[in-house]
């Protein structure tokens, strides 16, 4: 059972709990991006099981009529085993989802998986006429070139600052430089991307910039935030623009919870207050 402290960041251990969380968010005008926790599977069987679980989740979303979609990590579908296994499992999930009009996001993991992830997105974006989305990390030095490659594709691009701590040779390290890269890349997306832009940030400055760029270029966009982070802001923003919440669930919640607490001072303070009380 997930303790109340961790429950702020995780939408339950079961599919039923995740769907109920999605229903509650929908009532507040917020869409939900569901991710079953789990990554870096190094055997075929767990990767196949993960794909089957996502296909079942698609059916549950469709049956419940929820404003919800999926977000999947490539290593969860077997990329650590082989690129062929990853593509086969991802194709199966995306085909299943497309038949039920459920959107699929492909998460971006560490820099060693970037090329395989980009290749899979490009192929599926064309095949589904935009039924998939891709996460792109602003801190990687290669990202401006990647965005040029993606500009003419349908689908959605989620721009995040990046959290995998890649080496300085391939990624920016300074916070101010990363913020400037995010601004520049966000502007590029609004000006050139043929699909929809997703602002994957809790930073009010970046969210305000996106609204300004939307007014300037007319490019459709949405704001995406993590479950448990700036919840009040999510509800407030949902009255003016499209907001989606990234909500993980499942039995592997403990590692995710500790990562969320460690990465933001506000989260750590929340956890400390809860423990002391």
UniProtKB/TrEMBL annotation:
Domain (Proline dehydrogenase) ranges: 18-270
Domain of life: Archaea
Essential cofactor(s): FAD
Record bears the keyword Flavoprotein: yes
Catalytic activity: L-proline + a quinone = (S)-1-pyrroline-5-carboxylate + a quinol + H(+)
Signal peptide coordinates: none
GO process terms (BP): L-proline catabolic process to L-glutamate
One matching Pfam family: Pro_dh
Top EC class for this record: oxidoreductase
UniProt GO molecular function: nucleotide binding; proline dehydrogenase activity
Keywords: FAD, Flavoprotein, Nucleotide-binding, Oxidoreductase, Proline metabolism
PANTHER family, per database record: PROLINE DEHYDROGENASE 1, MITOCHONDRIAL (PTHR13914:SF0), PROLINE OXIDASE (PTHR13914)
Name of the protein in question: proline dehydrogenase
Annotated source species: Halomicrobium mukohataei (strain ATCC 700874 / DSM 12286 / JCM 9738 / NCIMB 13541) (Haloarcula mukohataei)
Organism classification: Archaea, Methanobacteriati, Methanobacteriota, Stenosarchaea group, Halobacteria
